[in-house]
Amino acid sequence: MLEVDLVQQLPGFTLDVRFQAPTGVTVLFGGSGAGKTTVVNAVAGLHRPESGRVALHDRVLFDLERGIWLPPHRRRIGYIFQEGRLFPHLNVRQNLLFGRWFAPKGAAREDFDRIIAMLGIAPLLERRPSGLSGGEKQRVAIGRALLSAPDMILADEPLAALDAARKEEIMPYFERLRDEVKIPVLYVSHSAAEVARLATSVVVLKDGRVQCQGSAAEVLGDAQVMPTGVRAAGALLEARLLRHHPDGLSELSAGGISLFLPQVPQAPGCLLRLRILAQDVILSRQKPEGLSALNILPAEVENIRSGSGPGAMVSLKTDAGRVLARITRRSAKVLELAPGSHCYAVVKSVAIARSDVSSSAAAAP
Amino acid sequence: MSWLGPEEWQAVALSLKVSIWASLLTLPFGIFAAYALARWHFPGKHLLNGLVHLPLILPPVVTGYLLLLIFGPQSAVGSALQQIGIVFAFQWTGAALAAAIMGFPLMVRAIRLSIEAVDPKLEEAAATLGASRFWVFVSVTLPLILPGILAGGILAFAKAMGEFGATITFVSNIPGQTQTLPSAIYAFLQQPGGESAALRLVAVSVVVAMGTLVLSEVLARRVSKRIGGA
Fold this sequence. Notes:
Number of domains of chain B: 1
Shape of chain A: globular
Order of helices and strands of chain B: HHHHHHHHHHH
Largest sheet of chain B: none
CATH architecture of chain B: Orthogonal Bundle
CATH topology of chain B: MetI-like fold
Radius of gyration of chain A: 22 Å
Oligomer: heterodimer
Number of strands of chain A: 21
CATH class of chain B: Mainly Alpha
Structural class of chain A: alpha+beta
Strand content of chain A: 35-45%
Largest interface: A-B, 30 and 24 residues
Distance between the termini of chain A: 15 Å
Distance between the termini of chain B: 41 Å
CATH class of the largest domain in chain A: Alpha Beta
Helix content of chain A: 10-25%
Number of domains of chain A: 2
CATH superfamily of the largest domain in chain A: P-loop containing nucleotide triphosphate hydrolases
Strand content of chain B: under 5%
């Protein structure tokens, strides 16, 4: 468990955050300039905040009042940087083993071969960082951090510098990190898609303050707190993969409701997370018939929020979990939607992208 | 080297000895001064910078005379050092000291540039992996600035091979003691009929300078390949 309590004057605003990060992936979520990197650098010890306290598993790393400030090399925190930061004068193996040199003798060590296998970097061991692709560099950086026998992992937008295809390549390794490594991971991101796939819990940072903290489903399902705008708003559902159909669809069950998606790579029986974007959901008062969309969920309106624009965000309770729908205010009026009214949420199968589906071994506490 | 007379050979050997000692012994100080100037903020930084560069901008004769004032047998420092068996005045060690002081600014400039080119983010990364400041320097900074150290060392060596003004002022021009290659060339040119000996020493100078240059190129290429700069 990481406990953070920091105050720092930054140009234009004051960073004042207080949160906890348990085992699993805690995503520090916010737009650019929200102070995310300042927080992780203070946790790592690369930057000294004006006041506050940082503790990791009862080990105090920083406490202004008690005059405690551990230098970064004594914190035992593995840091995965956005740009990888591999040492150019060492090959991949030497980079990976760099931290092991300095780890205390008695530290619980990750097995080298296991990490190499988990990250699929065995063929790269004798190569130089300058010859690696961006995705390969980042996998080595993950391994290097893990092999330094850390008490926790920090990752500062580790996918931000990669293109979409490379992101897809790295994301599963972070999922495995979340599911297989039993230490807290504090993961900085401004991408709702990354939150949806990786987060065990989410801390939303806005203008230097913690706006809310909760599970990924709670935060993504609450349009009010989405720091990156309504387009990224969407609910997170947990569903079990039932079977693959021969026509290229996979059938899932979420709270007894069958959902159909374009075929996913996982094996039947797996627990999956699906992100359903609010703008991909259609509402109907009657049970729709003769409709091409395959996923129709009976729902009850929880609340409707609208701002000055033409849109409204409808929060719905279904047996599968909370679903968000973004419709126009005009439609909400025509359909006479109000809290408590019943309707049907309609989701096209093909609207759910492959990247919105992920395995969920350790999700949902 | 039978075509070199004993006196000429002496001058060449002395110059090589003086230059090797001068460049090797100043290397740790040069790295330290370069690191301090590149990375640290401290009061008196400009003073240190000025002091390091002074031999570059002063007339060499002035530097030589100042060395004589500070380390000469009559001075407090000189006599104190004499007590513990270190004598600079009119000794080859004095020639090495003069050459070291004259080459120091060149060495520091080369190393400082290479330190400034090292991304501090790599050093931060090493710290998060558990390396203390000392080990960050040894395992990350030092290997990355190796080309700069090499260049600085070679510049200092070349400067030492050619140093004349400060040397002759500080330790005079005693054959076998303080007569380095340039001093010997100068002395031969003052003697009637000394031109051929001077010319032979000039040839040696050119060969040593070219050899140094080639060696530094080869080493630099090998080092930068090893540190992954492609």
